[in-house]
Specification:
Elements: H1 3-25, H2 39-44, H3 53-61, H4 65-71, H5 74-95, H6 99-111, H7 114-134
Helix pairs in contact: 1-5, 3-4, 3-5
C-alpha cells in the first residue's frame, strides 16, 4: 500500500470507530435498538471474535475496566490502538512526517512472522469461542 492509502485507511478506520463509540456512548444508538455492526452475527446469529468490543470500550470509558474485559478482551486493545493511532496521525499531519506509515509497515512485517501470527491467531480463536460460550 502507498503512504496515501495507509493514511486514508487508518484515518477512516479511527474516525468510524470514534463515531460508532460516540453514537453508543451518547445513547443515540443503544444495544436495545437491535443495531449491530457485526455482519457475521446479523447473518448467522453467531458472534464474531470482536463482538462485544463496543460494549467493552464504553465500559472502559465509564471506568469499568473489569466489565470491559468481560465483554471482550479486545476492547482495551482496540481503545489503545485507536488512541495511539490518533496521536501518531495527528503528529504526522502537524509535522509532515511519515512515522505512522513506517510503523504500519513494520507491524505488518512482524505479524507475518509465524511465531507472532500463530499465537495471535490462537488468541483471537479462543476469544471467539469465549464469545460464543457467553452468548454475545
Amino acid at each position: 500500500m502507498s503512504n496515501k492509502q495507509i493514511y486514508f485507511t487508518l484515518i477512516t478506520a479511527c474516525s468510524a470507530g470514534y463515531i460508532w463509540i460516540f453514537l453508543h456512548a451518547s445513547g443515540i444508538i443503544s444495544s436495545n435498538d437491535h443495531v449491530t455492526g457485526c455482519i457475521i452475527k446479523s447473518i448467522s446469529g453467531v458472534p464474531c471474535p470482536s463482538c462485544g468490543s463496543t460494549r467493552s470500550v464504553i465500559s472502559i470509558l465509564n471506568g469499568d475496566l473489569i466489565g470491559g474485559l468481560l465483554y471482550n478482551p479486545l476492547g482495551p486493545v482496540l481503545l489503545l490502538i485507536m488512541f495511539v493511532l490518533s496521536v501518531l496521525l495527528l503528529r504526522d499531519g502537524l509535522l509532515s512526517k511519515r512515522t505512522t506509515a513506517e510503523w504500519y509497515r513494520s507491524a505488518e512485517q512482524k505479524i507475518k512472522n509465524k511465531y507472532i501470527a500463530v499465537p495471535l491467531t490462537m488468541a483471537v480463536f479462543f476469544n471467539w469461542m469465549w464469545n460464543i460460550y457467553k452468548g454475545l
